[in-house]
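Bench notes, bay 3.
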Amino acid sequence: MTATARAQSPPTPHTEDRLDSWKEIASYLRRGVRTVRRWEKEEGLPIHRHLHQRLGTVYAYRNEIDAWWTARGQNLEQQKDEPKESQLGRWLAPALGTGAIVALMALAFVLWPSRNPTPPASPGRIMLAVLPFENLSGTPDHDYFSEGLTEEMITELGRLHPERLGVIARTSTMPYKGVNKSASVIAAELGVDYLLEGSVRREGDRVRITTQLIRASDQTHLWAQNYDRDLASALDVQSQVSRAVAGQIQLALEPLQLRRSSATQNPAAHEAALRGRYFLERRTADGIRSARDAFERAVRLDPSYALAYVGLADAHILSVTYADAPAKEAMTRAREAIVKALELDDELADAHAWHGVILAEYDWDWAAAEREFKRAVELSPNFAYAHKLYGEYLSYVGRFDQAIAEVRLAHQLDPRSIVTTSLVGIVLYRARRYDEALTELERAIALDPEHPMPYLPKGLSLSMKGMPDEAVAALRKGLSLTPESSEMIAQIAYASARGGRRDEARILLKELRERSGKGHVSPFLFALVHTGLGEPAAAVDSLEKAYAERDWLLCVLKTEPIFDPLRADARFQNLLRRMNFPA
């Protein structure tokens, strides 16, 4: 049923007139639970509560909802007529393929005036957030599908008109999954002008996707649409929705901005890739291994699926950090996957970004790496992760003003991400701007005090400010959250030695050696401790071992403040030259 049909006729009556839960009410209205909760709060949806029970126990009467819906439909101008893009698709569907229909829809939005002619309140770049699509399939086993569609929608919208439309990254929107907040609160927290929300219902080989666009300034529902598809044709929904949203926000799409899709037309391959992305975001050893298996299945099912090769490369790269994979083997396989992805589609921003990581962190080919990062940003200016990776690269080579600008841009596109917020602090730390770094790291900690990432650069910044007790306290907090982290132990040892507690540092150094007898511990970490203890020869010896292993941690060698006491050492300078750092 189209949005127009939904507005013109109330839901079909049932024999029993009462709906006894949020889920039943949402199902009756064919919307998500989050939407109907907001409708109650902001638009007067008639909901009753059992006064003798907890507040969350609700019920509603169909006849009251029908009356409310009719009145609401009369007041919403944008739902009086069936959207012209829906008419166009229905008229042409028997004669044309989906790709042609999508292109004509885009043209329709340029030629036909918007039903909501009021321009956005804020001048310049418009900001949009795609909230996590709700899984209405009745089982959490399908979360990977709704999360995957959310991420693909973000990617699709981010390509449309990046000069005018900024799209918030998934890491900042996923925390809103299942959260009962008003549209105005979410928009204020994310700093956006518009919200896109939706739901997904899987039933066998069919999928029903519901979407609606909300203007944050007055919480007006500008547009809504339902899509009933089989899994094969569901892949086209992202393109249809993104162009419909663009029309409502009054963006004129130039024909040259419409690029071919790298999606697969194989439903099983697409589903495997969605599973891979879902597992990848778990950031655990088991999750990374499961992601790798899923992407390998996707490329077996469709060897021309470029995005699946990008996911496979991503899994191999992250396996070094999260699954103790040998760097040489993992990076070799990652390179093979990325090269294949670029052969299939040289305009994939993700592929260029990860290629830049391999060139920088494993090959130490800094010039080639920068070309790849620049290409990724050029292809997808809304791709927050590309700005993050490029900013980190710039901090490796010492171009701090540019690095700070890039990571701040990444933060603008991903404002609720602990990783991105922490990275702003890390780059400021490498630039020796310790007070500013601490301000950013406190913001990251405020987002989630139980996330370990901000505590390490916080401890380092405090140590560089001559506050060893506070530094060790911050690092020990981080270690309590990641007890398996050898890097936290090494940094505690460094901060202790720098603060004069050499005996404590040597005890921790002994613990690192014991760990290295049971598993791999990077020689780079031993170099940190020896530097803190004032043992430059031993520190450089450890760095040479890290060089022999092609340890990616050496990327920070040129700009890491900890190694400032070693910079006059001839062996250290020789190591920098062999790593090909630009002057």
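Next record in the batch:
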Amino acid sequence: MRTVIVAVTAAAVVASPVAVPAAAARPATVGPETIGIAWNACADPALRNAGVECGFVSVPLDHAKPTGTRIRLAVSLKRHTVPRAKYQGVMLVNPGGPGASGLGLALLGQDVPGKAGGAYDWIGFDPRGVGASRPALRCVPNYFAGPRPDYVARTKTLEKAWLNRSEAYADACAKNGGALLRHIRTVDHAKDVDHIRAALGRPTINFYGYSWGTYLGQVYATLFPSRVRRMVLDSNVHPDQVWYEANLDQNWAFDRNFKIWTGWVAKHDKVYRLGKSAAAVRKVYYAEQAKLRAKPVGVVGPAEWSDAFVPVGYSQAYWPLVATAFANRVTKGDITLIRQLFEAFNGVGDDNGFANYLATGCTDARFPAKWDTWRRDASRIHAKAPFLAWNNTWFNAPCHFWRAPAGKPVTVDGRRVATVLLIGETLDAPTPFEGSLRVRKLFPRARLLAVPGGPNHGASLFGNACVDNVVAAYLATGTLPSRKSGSRADATCAPRPEPTPEVARHAPRPTPPHRFS
């Protein structure tokens, strides 16, 4: 899954801003205890104006060698607003990826209903290799610049072109990443989280994770169960499918959600004029892609066209914008918004998110050693679910050539964790709902809040009042739904209404588009 954070507006698509620490460091306290972090005013004006402070935490490059080389993690802080007697500790937040910057999520607490977030110090952070952390991994900044070869490997020539590109990218990461590439697995990130906890002077942490952030939380809770106070895991990675199998499941799920979206577009044919049935809309989609295959328009070819539509599998909030971009191309011949979507979604010009996505994913677990396995699976799924199958295959293909060795995934075990709130929409495409059911089984004291029929990746603190109120109650008092027997949700909320067919005026909260989460 893609790690780039996408912010959308009616007029354009832009990448989420990255905050970095500024000058004028000063010691500070969080809650009742002194912290071992020198906090600065954030360089990013949006964070600075919102009262967020930034700093660094030093951690070992290799956790097995704690006195060896050190690297720095960028962290951010939004302080609690309640009196000391009502203070509930620190809340670390991760938006997913792997590879997404989390500094901006220090502001997440203000979205918790009833001011329940005010009892916590909200801590965002850029994982090792990411964003403002140092060193930051970049390999080929313009790797996604279009037009690129068609994703669908219809010929040996196309397949060879993508294999060559994938191998060259892996080689560039090996050259630029150095020793970091051997120490950037999820288990390394989890140990980093515990170093942040120690730097914050806290015996326990609260943790809020989306998407890959849920896997980070699962691994942290497995390694350090006694240090987990409260934990919210939204859109859960299936811990037994890290990561090749997870991608195969995504291919089916994204195709399903693409069909759901085309049905919504058809329902609003008077606005978009792209077809009066879902099948008709899909026919137009693939016909336009074929035209671009024959003759790209500027930087937009068939691969870029495919990328521009992937956000509809993440959130309904993207549906109107992508529909408008589609209609602009078909009815007006204007491909500008399509270009802006694919460039923002892929992070054209800065591959930091993609590089770190691979650096963690490729080394968390082994991918199939034989390329024939990749080809066979992509071809098999493409025959029935063509929307993402080859797109996703090439997104992950550098793992076939990755120069750092892969390890074995952590065996997730939540039996010693006291309390967890799991959240998932049942039609989530990047992290299918079966993952949440599996995590619930592995964490016997967890409770699962489901949104039946919801097609969004990221259900909480996005405007669903039912979901958000359950989160608020948990953060305020530790209250959770009663645990039910069997493999099922413990409580449910109705999904958010479908969006109206206007161009989105505001972005959804940054979700980590693409692939693991």
